[in-house]
Recover the amino acids of this structure.
């Protein structure tokens, strides 16, 4: 189980399911017409879900740090 | 987070005022909290107060009629968010949205005008702040006009980077695209190229600047 999950704006999500299809960890599902990130799945923060979302409803924001 | 007293003591707005002059200003401040993604104000709305950012990070942006977003700046604590409409009497030229939980301190427009009349030093400070803001916008025009996406992106990364352990703005690739005036896909390709060159790296939710000097050189390269 990971501590950080992609951020979801339920108001923007129309439940289209595009993100479900691109998640290679199978970590996303649609429940009650909105996107849900499954707790037990290890997200590698690839950002594909964010890239395909037409409504900017799921996001993988990055903190930019100096090494 | 800075207290109202600390903000008044350190803000460029009130620089040079005596402690006894600062004291009554503290009483004019109203505190307000916003949750992540909440809008502080919208483009086109009337503005009634000068807003100082006390904690958190705020996105200042414009939206085109077809919904495309151009981020003008990412505001950090101690910055003011809306001097322009406050002083030219117009409506908000931009929108502002909280990127994390945010606390702001607000001073009513009439009180700010009263302070400027009472203390010419405050008016002079305002000119400095507006000049700085204009310079920042000139730099943005320069970058959008003359720099390639790589250069603009490198500048955005350097400007928004924090040291390990510090909090800061958490940007999506869409945010970076809106700041650089390009599409998300272009940002994605640029980040990948920088990663392949060993300039940056990714560690889950962190984008790590591995070679600061190389990134600086990229940011200074014009097309």
């Amino acid at each position: 189980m990971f501590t950080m999950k992609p951020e979801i704006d339920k108001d923007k999500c129309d439940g289209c399911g595009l993100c479900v299809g691109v998640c290679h960890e199978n970590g996303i599902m649609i429940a009650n017409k909105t996107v849900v990130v499954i707790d037990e799945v290890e997200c590698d923060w690839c950002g594909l879900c964010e890239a395909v979302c037409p409504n900017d409803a799921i996001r993988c924001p990055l903190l930019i740090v100096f090494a | 987070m800075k207290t109202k007293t600390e903000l008044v003591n350190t803000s460029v707005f009130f620089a040079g005022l005596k402690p006894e002059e600062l004291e009554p200003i503290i009483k004019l401040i109203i505190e307000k909290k916003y949750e992540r993604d909440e809008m502080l104000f919208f483009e086109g709305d009337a503005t009634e107060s000068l807003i100082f950012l006390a904690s958190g990070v705020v996105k200042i942006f414009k939206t085109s009629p077809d919904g495309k977003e151009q981020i003008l700046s990412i505001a950090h604590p101690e910055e003011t968010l809306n001097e322009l409409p406050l002083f030219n009497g117009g409506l908000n030229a931009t929108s502002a949205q909280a990127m994390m939980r945010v606390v702001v301190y607000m001073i009513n427009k009439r009180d700010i005008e009263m302070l400027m009349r009472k203390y010419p030093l405050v008016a002079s400070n305002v000119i400095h702040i507006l000049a700085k803001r204009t310079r920042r916008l000139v730099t943005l025009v320069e970058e959008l006009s003359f720099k390639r996406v790589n250069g603009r992106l490198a500048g955005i990364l350097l400007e928004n980077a924090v040291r390990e352990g510090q909090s800061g703005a958490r940007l999506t690739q869409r945010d970076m695209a809106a700041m650089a005036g390009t599409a998300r896909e272009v940002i994605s390709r640029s980040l990948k190229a920088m990663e392949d060159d060993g300039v940056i790296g990714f560690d889950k939710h962190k984008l790590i600047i591995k070679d600061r000097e190389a990134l600086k050189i990229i940011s200074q390269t014009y097309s």
User: Anything to note?
Assistant: Chain A touches chain B at residues 4, 9, 44-45, 47, 50-51, 56, 59-67 (CB under 8 Å).
